[in-house]
Please model this.
Amino acid sequence: MRKYCFLILLVASFTGFSVADDHPTSSSSISTNDHGDPILKAMLAELKRSQEKLQFGQFQRPYFIDYQVTEIQDYISDAFLGALRSDDANVGRLVRVVVRIGNHKQDSYFGEGQGTIEVMPMDNNELALRHTLWLATDKAYKAALSGLTEKQAALKNVVVDQ
Model:
């Protein structure tokens, strides 16, 4: 018997551009209420840090960052003729980070720029959670830079007949 439980804790994101004029806006949709949850607290802190400071050299800053944390519980038991042969329980936590650069009309969500998935610690240590989020965000940002370049190169090879 297998039982899987999936729980998405939060999707937190910000948008740093308005659709109308593609200029940075000063407002953000980040809530500061963490409700005492260490995972949410770490996500909000890293989201704020990334919104303010994430930029590699002269490359574009992200206009969208998305964190999704999923906790997985897996329980397997095996019995034969009424006798339990094995009984195993496993738990884990994953984070999916999507970073988008560009703008709403053409962004980096292509190829490598579709985000990254990393394993998160289960002990709810805020510094360990933030470190994992920071590394995953950095990896997703660099993949987004590659994805945008790949998308722009692919679009140059497209011919539209009119």
